[in-house]
From TrEMBL:
SMART domains with a match to the protein in the record: KH (SM00322)
Organism of origin: Candidatus Marsarchaeota G1 archaeon BE_D
Keywords: RNA-binding
Pfam family membership, one: KH_PNO1_2nd
Superkingdom of source: Archaea
Residues covered by the K Homology domain: 82-149
GO molecular function: RNA binding
Name of the protein: K Homology domain-containing protein
Length: 163
């Protein structure tokens, strides 16, 4: 007996105003997803996504990640490893100060959080996107919120360092 995988379809409306770099990453994602049996058609501003049911949600989430500025290679890993992500929407009050605290001098705070906790962190506009396994994303979210509230970066980072 020939087994047929069940396909499901969803309509997804991407954000408007995507820049050229994001469009390029999006095209790479479409090619990758096609190899996985995910078919994406554009009708007007909507995307019609048809995929085996086990891939549908992850494919939709990958598209969202690309829209938020996550590079294709990281979105691909998210898809393949069945990872998790969380978006922190920063209050626009004192936004540059908050982003500066998250990134740190020359990117040091962000890099240390990524290395110690084992996540990828992306900052775009007033959003912080954290990608990794569920536990690591939750730990990074906690750390970032503490940093945004004014806790010294080194104290927050030291809290997560393994003995």
């Amino acid at each position: 007996m020939n087994s047929v995988k069940k396909c499901t379809t969803v309509v997804f409306e991407p954000h408007s105003g995507l820049d050229a770099h994001i469009l390029s990453e999006f095209e790479r994602l479409l090619l990758f997803l096609k190899e996985k049996g995910v078919i994406i058609n554009r009708i007007g501003t909507n995307l019609i996504i048809s995929a085996p049911s086990e891939f549908l949600m992850r494919a939709t989430e990958c598209i969202k990640l690309i829209e938020y500025g996550v590079p294709f290679e990281r979105a691909r890993i998210f898809f393949e490893k069945e990872e998790y992500y969380h978006i922190i929407e920063l209050d626009k009050e004192e936004l540059s100060r908050k982003i500066g605290r998250i990134i740190g001098t020359n990117g040091k705070t962000k890099r240390n959080l990524e290395k110690i906790i084992g996540v990828s962190i992306f900052v775009k506009d007033n959003r912080v996107i954290i990608v990794g396994n569920f536990d690591s994303v939750e730990r990074a979210k906690d750390a970032i919120l503490r940093i945004v509230k004014g806790k010294p970066q080194n104290i927050v980072i030291n809290r997560f360092q393994r003995p």
